[in-house]
Amino acid sequence: MQYVALACRCALGVVFLMAVFGKVRGREAFLAFRASVPDMVPLATGRATPLSVAVILAEACVVVLLTVQWTVPAGFVLAGAVLLAFYAGIARVVRSGSRTPCRCFGATATPLSGRHLIRNAGLLAVTATGGVAHLLTAPGDAHPAGVAIAMAGAGVLALTVVFFDDLADLFAGPPPTPGHL
Question: What is the 3-state composition of the chain as percent helix, strand, coil, each rounded to the nearest 5?
């Protein structure tokens, strides 16, 4: 179970790190993310910037918590909470029929759709699996081959999530019209 937990930790860490980087890599990226937030969450005027910063800080905290061995359970819990919040925000956008683009990993023109709900459900499954595997793992030394396989699997999983829109477009065509799951 330790290798499953390690793979989930690494995959989520890379995904959240890429999400932070995509939002703070430049002024335009942050402004684009901030502009998408009111479509996902009903906010009072002037609350988009603080909430956007809070989201980025929460994502960064997930990365740090998953990196430190004794804070891993908290990292899985925070990752789950953030992903559930994103899931609710994406569902709100999809139900409204808005063409709000996905700003998860930076500026793209791909509107949020049911695909993103599926992606986030998959990430929630990875989070739950990793959390349970971590709790069931007895302390002990890891074999280098097991660590290498876990890291390779985490890399493939993380890249699949980060480039999810491109892969979905490649295999399923353009996203469906918003408002239809």
Answer: 75, 0, 25
Structural contact between residues 104 and 19, judged by C-beta atoms closer than 8 angstroms: yes
Record the tokens describing residue 155, joined without a space. 């890399």
> How many Å apart are CA 62 and CA 82, to the nearest integer?
9
* Total residue length of the chain: 181
Q: What phi and psi, each to the nearest 5 degrees, are found at residue 180?
A: -120, 125
Burial grade of 171 (CB within 10 A; 0-12, 13-18, 19 or more): exposed
Rounded CA separation 166/105 (Å)? 12
**Mean pLDDT, all residues of the chain:** 89
CA separation for the pair 39, 48 (Å, rounded): 10
Per-residue pLDDT tens over the stretch 164-177: 888 888 888 776 55
Q: Cβ-count burial of 123 within 10 angstroms (0-12 exposed, 13-18 middle, 19+ buried)?
A: buried
Which position has the token pair 């061995």?
Answer: 69
Query: What pTM value is reported for the model?
Result: 0.86
- Degrees, nearest 5: CA angle 99-105-111: 15
Burial of 163 (0-12, 13-18, 19+ CB in 10 A): middle
